[in-house]
Structure formats: C-alpha cells, structure tokens
Amino acid sequence: MIDDRRKNLASLSFTEKIRILEKLRDRSLVLAASRKKLELKKQDGRKV
Q1: Distance of CA 13 to the CA centre of its chain
Q2: CA-CA to 15 of 20 to 30 Å: which in 24, 26, 29, 43?
C-alpha cells in the first residue's frame, strides 16, 4: 500500500506535487489556529 502511494506520488508532475504540498500546508495552518483557539478558551476558563 505504501509502495503504491509512493509510486503514485513519484509519477505526478512537479506542479501537482506543489499543489498537494500547498493543501497540506493550508490544512496544517487551520489545525494550528484551531488548536490555539482551544488553548486560549481553556485559559479563560470557558467551556470548550
């Protein structure tokens, strides 16, 4: 399964790989921001 995924990624063009990396970066930023909001709510004593 991992080998298949690796082969699939290897067959993509550079532009397609960049698009995937940008989506992963955006998702990571959203998760980090939502995590930060939860931490701030907990510090304020609000229910999450």
Answers
A1: 21
A2: 29
